[in-house]
Amino acid sequence: MASVSDFVSEDTGLISHAVSGFVPRSVLVPFKQDECSLQPLVQVGESVREGQTIAQGKTSSVQATIPGVVEAISIVQYPDGKQGKAAKINLGGSFSFLGKRKARIDWKTFTPSTILTLLTEKGVVNTFDHCVSLAGQIHNLHTKSARILAVRLFDDDPSRVTEKFIAEHYWREVAEGISIVAKAMDASGVVFCYDSEKKLEPIPQADSLFPMPQLSCSVNVEKYPAGFSHEIAAAVKKVSESAPFNKIGNRDLYIDSMTALAVYNAIVCSVPLMERYVHVTGDCLNAISIMKVKIGTTLGDLAKQCGGFKRPVAKIVINGLVTGFSVSSLSIPVTKMVKSVAFLPAKKACRQYTEQCIRCGDCRKICPVGLYPDMLYRSFLHGKNGTELEKQYAATSILCTGCGLCDAVCPSRLPLNETAVLLKGRNDEE
After folding, report:
1. In the predicted model, is pLDDT for residue 286 greater than 70?
2. How confident is the model at residue 421 (pLDDT cuts 50, 70, 90)?
3. Which segments within 306-418 are labelled E, that is strand?
4. If DSSP codes are grouped into helix, strand and coil, which group holds residue 377?
5. HEC per residue, 166-229
6. High-pLDDT (> 70) share of the chain, %
7. How far apart are CA 342 and CA 344, in angstroms?
8. Is the peptide bond preceding residue 244 cis, with omega within 30 degrees of 0?
9. Cα angle 84-86-87, degrees, rounded to a multiple of 5
C-alpha cells in the first residue's frame, strides 16, 4: 500500500450539503453508458418525455433526462475518452419527475426477477469499478460465488468525496437500496465496508431489511489502495473466519453507495437513473460543490454553475486524480459513470507525453499484488510475437486490481495500468 497524502481531496469536510444543478437548456445523452450494446429508440425531430427510454438493451437502458425535442443524433466524446452516438435534446414541455412528489412503492412484495426487470427498465448501473449494468451483473453472478454483497461506503480514489458524501447524507435510502440488491441476488450475507475514521450509524429497520447475516468492516483509507474488491475481501477475511463471509472473493457482487442510492430511487420511488451527484472541484473554479445534475449536462455547464473559472484550465480529470480519466473538452457530457470532475491549472497538470521504459523497477515495487507492470506492457506491445516468458507474465494480468499506482510512479508516463486492464479483458475472453 502507498500513502495517499498527496492525493487526499482538499474538499474533505468542507462540503456539508449538495446543491441541485440548473436544468440545462439542452443535454447530450449518450446511447451507450455501460458495457451493453443498446438500440436507439428515437429519431431527430421526435418529442420525448422526461424519463422516456431512448435506448434499450437486454439488461440496460438509457432515458431522456429532460423533456423536449431531439435536435440531433451525433458522435460525441465520452468521459472515458471513447466516442459514440448521443441524442441532443432541447428543453421543452413539462417534467414528469422533477418537482413532483414521489410516491413510495412497497417493493418487499416484488420477486427477485421483478426487481431485475425494473433495474433494467430504469437504467440502473453499478459504478463500483467501471460502469456496468447492475441487472446484468446479478444475472451473471458466477455459480461458484459465495453470493455475498459487499458495499463500499467510501471513495476508492482518495481525491474524490462523492461516495462518502452520499453514504453520510443519504444513509437511510442507501441502506434500503442495499437491501433491495441483496434480495434481487438472493445474498447469503451483506458486508458494509466503511472508513475506519467514521462510525457506521445503526441501520434503520435492520431486522426487516436484512434477514441474512450482516458484517461491518472498517478500512484504513489513509493507505491506498483500500477500496477495490481485492482489498475489501482481504479485510473481511481478517475480521471474520465464519461462513459465509470467510468465502468472499472476486466472484461476489461489490457495489458502492452511489449504486445503492440509484437502486432506491428506481425501485422505491420508480424514478429512472437520470441524475448524478458529482463532486466538482479544482483550483481553477471560483467554488467547489457536490452537485446533483442531469445526465447529459456538459462539463462547461458544471463550471458555469460553480461561478466559472478564475484561472485558465490546463487539465480536466474525470473520477479522481489516481484512477480517473484526463479529458480536454468542456463539451463532454456527464454520464452515469461520472462521480467527480476536477479542473486543474498548469502547475498541477503533469506532462502527458511518453518515453521509453528506463527499467527503474518502480512499478514493480509499488504494485500491491506483486505484478510486473513493465513486463505486462512489453507483452502487450509484442502480442503473439512475444517470448514465452512475456506470455506467462501476460497471464498474471488477471490479478490486477486497477489501482493505477504503476501509472502514478512511472517516470516515462507509460500507460501501464491501461495495458494491464486490456490484457485482463483479453484473458477473460479466452
Report:
1. yes
2. confident
3. 315-318, 325-327, 340-344
4. helix
5. HHHHCHHHHHHHHHHHHHHHCCCEEEEEEECCCCCCCCCCHHHHCCCCEEEEEECCCEECCCCH
6. 94
7. 6
8. yes
9. 165
